[in-house]
């Protein structure tokens, strides 16, 4: 425990730097509803907000914001979040997810902590 107290502030803050990634989904087909998964590594004491959005018309995100309570299991590490989407049409789309949080020091001075991940998806046409 004493070793943790002696860490420089920069080293201690690295423990709370968020990591965000998107899992590669199975192939998506136009007209299909699917759940994509965002994986977040962030200290359990830090609040978080996930904001997914899509680029292009082939894919639409169904939810605009996710909080810690929206995780599959909010006590798990790392956290895994469902991102419901609809594959609207054949084509290419980009899913971007923004993670926003903040970290406060002992003097209650807070700084924003952010991460972003993106995934390029190819939506297949429906089978004839």
Brief descriptors of the model:
single chain; 4-stranded antiparallel β-sheet; 51% strand; disordered N terminus; 128 residues
Structure report:
This protein is mainly beta and 128 residues long. Helices cover 8% and strands 51% of the residues. The chain contains two helices and nine strands; from the N terminus they run ααβββββββββ. Strand 8 (91-104) and strand 9 form a beta hairpin. The N and C termini lie far apart (63 Å). Residues 1-14 have low confidence and may be disordered. The chain has a five-stranded mixed beta sheet with strand order 2-9-8-4-6, with no helix packed on it. The protein has a four-stranded antiparallel beta sheet with strand order 1-3-7-5, with no helix packed on it.
General shape: elongated
Strand fraction equals over 45%
| Counted beta strands | 9
Largest sheet descriptor: 5 strands, mixed
Q: Over the alpha carbons, how many angstroms does the gyration radius reach?
A: 18 Å
Question: In which order are the strands of the major sheet placed?
Answer: 2-9-8-4-6
**Average pLDDT rating:** 87
The structural class is mainly beta
- The low-confidence runs, each spanning 5 or more residues with pLDDT under 50, are 1-14
Number of helices: 2
Give the % helix: under 10%
| Span between termini | 63 Å
Order of helices and strands: HHEEEEEEEEE
